[in-house]
Structure prediction request, 335 residues.
Amino acid sequence: MSSPSDLTPDIAAGFARLTLGHLGQPWPYKLDHVMTGPDDVRAPAELHPIFHGSFDWHSCVHGWWQVLRIARAFPDLPVAAEIRARADTMLVPANVAGELAYLARPASGGFERPYGWGWLLALHHEASRHDAGWGAALEPLARAFAARFHAFLPKLTYPIRVGTHFNTAFALTLAREWALAFDGALVERIDDRARGWFGGDADCQAWEPGGDEFLSPALSVALLMSRVEPDFARWFDRFLPRAADRQPASLFTPAHVSDRSDGKIAHLDGLNLSRAWAWTAIADALGADHPATVPTRAAASGHLAASIDHLADDYMGTHWLASFALLALGGETRT
Prediction:
């Protein structure tokens, strides 16, 4: 049974091979695309010169984050050389210009908000840590998405707490790590909004999971607040006051996945993996002496075990789950 922090070279190489197999796979592909006329009827690779594989734009983005993260953590793996060669071909200014052109379309204002925004910033943050030109090439695209966060957050009156792509807290967790390195004003804006939205949360009932969720609405908030709130343990004790007793039980029980060929139901494998990541990070933030730390670490291990062996069962999961497995096994966005 794997547990968090068990990211070995063999496991990492397996993840990378799985993901390289679909990063450039053109079909099937699900566009997030508003057509305003006949000229907008174009193939995905024309619309998105970089992110036209992995079934959809955001999965391709975090697939690239995943393989670059692995290449940096394990630079001597044979697959790392292939990753670097692919990145040298794809993560170049001309292709970034094509992605920026798509973003500049008037009909693209809400494109990939906020999930894809957060993952693009995570990708740029990772790319910038490599001794290559990838970070410089991607920076204009990252800055464009950061500008969108700056414009959007002040007018988002209410946070979105669902367990799918629209979740506010998850995207801000990713964006904040990028902002710590590149945009101090965005850190301040994220922290201010997070405290305003979530600072008073208490006695969370955790009515989850929903049938197609890949994020925990409750744990996504807790994960963000572990980065934002200086006295996180005090906040957490109000938010989940019975966590030491493994309550609410829904948060400590892995989701059952009945059909991994169903793209929506397969989301639940992602829920198990993202919960494993969140529980581990929460336990780290609480510290060894907190009464909830032991049960939260056990929950992380249980959720990981429920889904880690199913990454390659069906393309509906294969095109994205390895990124979440990397998070669960210690491949943090911030390390």
Notes: The mean pLDDT is 97. The chain has 16 helices and no strands. Residues 267-286 form the longest helix (20 residues). The radius of gyration is 19 Å.
